[in-house]
Design goal:
The protein starts with a helix and ends in a 13-residue tail after the last helix. The protein is mostly helical and 95 residues long. 59% of the residues lie in helices and 0% in strands. α1 packs across α2. It is built from five helices and no strands. It has a domain of 59 residues: Arc Repressor Mutant, subunit A (Orthogonal Bundle), CATH 1.10.10.1410.
């Protein structure tokens, strides 16, 4: 997640977003650079633009809490967790 913050910071200041620059930002902030995560981030950003991601993030719908009792909500949550979900690709795989 830290690599995403570093990329957003670089984008905000107009810097080039590359593996090396993201790693430098993380190191300068005292963080640990996960090279695999950074590589996934850069690959995901090649497929889309950060501005588009930021715009779409503000318009994502939020689900309301279930109106039923707590036991029913727990059962529903457990059922959803058991369902196999398809692995996200690109930048979505980092979240």
């Amino acid at each position: 997640m830290e690599s995403i913050y570093a990329a957003l910071l670089l984008h905000k200041v107009g810097g080039k977003i590359s593996e090396a620059s993201v790693e430098k930002v993380l190191t300068a902030a005292g963080g640990k650079a996960d090279k695999d995560e950074i590589a996934k981030l850069i690959a995901g950003l090649k497929e889309t633009k950060i501005d588009d991601i930021i715009k779409s993030a503000g318009s994502m719908p939020v689900m309301a809490a279930p109106a039923g009792d707590k036991k029913e909500a727990k059962k529903e949550k457990k059922k959803k967790e058991e369902e196999v979900e398809e692995e996200p690709t690109g930048i979505g795989s980092l979240f």
